[in-house]
Amino acid sequence: MDINLGGIRLAESKLDVTDLVELQLIENAISARSSEIENIKNNKEQVSAQEGLKRAAGKFDEANGACSDLESKRKKLEDTVELQNEKIKNDEKKLFSGTIMSAKELENYQEEVKILKQKNSEIEDKILELMIELEEMSDKVKLAAAEKDKAEADLNRINNEMNEKIEVLKHIIEGLRKRKDDVILRIPGDHLKKYNEVKTKKGGIAVSVLKNNFCSVCNMEIPMIAAEKIDDIDEIYSCPLCGRIAVIYRSEIDIIKKELES
């Protein structure tokens, strides 16, 4: 079999031209699947879910922190009441012990008990107010926690769906690479070398298919003079417009495409 590049025919080892087309289609499919993986990783829904979780977590932390602060204040006030009740108890015990000898000392103890009881009454009012605030804040914490849990569940769902899609695509790519290795083994070394050279120069696309005198890559019609010389379906040519390796269309190419798309 000969190769016709730029009008010069060179003797080459036997080549099935569809192997070159299949190699190109496989590499295109691998590239497309890899792009799909990158697009999945850049999922806008995931970014939005992450931001939603961040907001929900911040709202929960804020509510939970406020609740903790209120609980701390309540505990501190209760400790104060407890200490003052102990002081009142000791003062009253002193008052009724019969050991107080002066009216002034008796008056002082009575005044202290009165003041302590008044302070405790005021503190207990504050504790009651705090308990009402705590109940309201506890409800906010529960709502914030539920919102956070939902946001986390949504993000986990999206991540799981993304991972499943990526794993499927990776499996497909693995199969495509194995098929690519098999095709490469069928292509003579000189043709494979030429394929890689053209691919490097032409942005990764080395092979075009000529159908009705149109190039499948540059999408332009080949001049009539050049088209008249492209007449052997089993030979490879060079597109006079984009310079890629050109193969005349045959139905087997559509079969290969369908196989790679399935």
Walkthrough of the structure:
The protein contains six helices and six strands, in the order ββααααββαββα. The two termini are about 35 Å apart. A hairpin with a 2-residue loop joins strand 1 (about 1-5) and strand 2. The strands form two sheets. The chain has a four-stranded mixed β-sheet. A two-stranded antiparallel ribbon has the order 1-2. The chain has about 260 residues and is of the alpha+beta class. The protein has two domains: about 1-40 and about 180-260, no CATH class; about 45-170, Orthogonal Bundle (Helix Hairpins). The chain has helices at about 15-40, 45-95, 105-185, 190-200, 225-230, 250-260, and strands at about 1-5, 10, 205-210, 215, 235-240, 245-250. It is rod-shaped, with a radius of gyration of 42 Å.
Secondary structure: elements and pairs:
Layout: E1 2-5, E2 8-11, H1 17-41, H2 44-95, H3 103-186, H4 189-201, E3 207-211, E4 214-215, H5 224-228, E5 236-238, E6 245-248, H6 251-261
Parallel strand pairs: 3-6
Antiparallel strand pairs: 1-2, 3-4, 5-6
Helix pairs in contact: 1-3, 1-6, 2-3
Provide the descriptors you would attach to this structure in a database record.
single chain; 262 residues; alpha+beta; Helix Hairpins; 2 domains; 4-stranded mixed β-sheet; two-stranded antiparallel sheet; 6 helices; 6 strands; rod-shaped; disordered N terminus
Strand order of the largest sheet: 4-3-6-5
CATH class of the largest domain: Mainly Alpha
Structural class: alpha+beta
Shape, principal axes of CA atoms? rod-shaped
Number of DSSP E strands: 6
The pLDDT mean sits at 92
- Computed Rg: 42 Å
Distance between the termini: 33 Å
Helix percentage: over 70%
Q: How many discrete structural domains?
A: 2
User: Main β-sheet, in a few words?
Assistant: 4 strands, mixed
CATH architecture of the largest domain: Orthogonal Bundle
Percent in strands:
5-15%
CATH topology-level fold name of the largest domain: Helix Hairpins
Number of helices: 6
Question: Which oligomeric state applies?
Answer: single chain
In N-to-C order, the SSE pattern is EEHHHHEEHEEH
Unreliable segments (pLDDT under 50, ≥5 consecutive)? 1-12
